[in-house]
Amino acid sequence: MSEQPLLKVRDLSKFYGRRIGCANVSFDLWPGEVLAVVGESGSGKTTLLSCLSTRLMPTTGSVDYRMRDGAYRELYHMSEAERRFLMRTDWGFVHQNPADGLRMTVSAGANVGERLMAVGERHYGNIRATATDWLERVEIASDRIDDQPRAFSGGMRQRLQIARNLVTNPRLVFMDEPTGGLDVSVQARLLDLVRGLVADLGLSVIVVTHDLAVARLLSHRMMVMKDGHVIEQGLTDRVLDDPREPYTQLLVSSILQV
Ligand SMILES: Nc1ncnc2c1ncn2[C@@H]1O[C@H](COP(=O)(O)OP(=O)(O)OP(=O)(O)O)[C@@H](O)[C@H]1O
């Protein structure tokens, strides 16, 4: 891991009127690190992810992102165009519902190729070859390249969404309940695939999940949220095997095995 954080989050808070979305969240994310944000429904996970990915403006706080040239930029001081450029190139966002992250009425190949074109690739042959390669990496047969994702199963759609996100070699990927809507057997296979890709590509990931098994399998470090606050954070194995906070103990003991 390199010696400088990719993301420096300080005192991030988002209020919806008087209701707390998330409050006083601070952490560093290091290159190659997978951070899981866990907590019950309503604990603030989505609000935090939305603020970090600049989909939502926080009420207070700052997020500094280390650009490819090594300089830090404050995300909320960037122009809308700069943020959109980051999202198209340096970042990925894997939605729980693949339909939110895919274009359902264009082919699988175009879904992947489009992201390549956004980073300047123009050669049709290269785009198709890279798209084919990525479909294979996410275990979609290359003869499905011209099919639209609406003809795919839920698991295939999710794998296609992952290919679309990773094809540009992003440095930071946000994932919102990436296995949420899938059958248990499909989830296990997808998690295995994601874990392999994240390790191979050395990605930094922030994954939101209410499923501690997902956190266990994917993440190095985790943050536990309750009522908008981070109440415990640490190495994933430590938090799950030796939770310090009573609330985390309750979360861990409420599932039979993680
Ligand atoms: N647009 C909104 N307007 C008002 N309150 C909101 C809004 N979005 C979220 N909240 C409130 O902020 C708090 C945190 O919600 P958030 O959706 O971030 O939690 P979550 O942990 O992601 O839950 P879930 O797992 O159900 O998505 C909740 O009290 C919620 O009611």
From TrEMBL:
UniProt GO molecular function: ATP binding; ATP hydrolysis activity; lyase activity
InterPro entries recorded: AAA+_ATPase, ABC_transporter-like_ATP-bd, ABC_transporter-like_CS, P-loop_NTPase, PhnK
ABC transporter domain span: 7-252
Keyword Transmembrane: no
Keywords: ATP-binding, Lyase, Nucleotide-binding
GO biological process: organic phosphonate catabolic process
Signal peptide: none
Protein family: Belongs to the ABC transporter superfamily.
NCBIfam families assigned to the protein according to its UniProt record, in alphabetical order: CP_lyasePhnK
Protein name as catalogued: Phosphonate C-P lyase system protein PhnK
Native source species: Allorhizobium taibaishanense
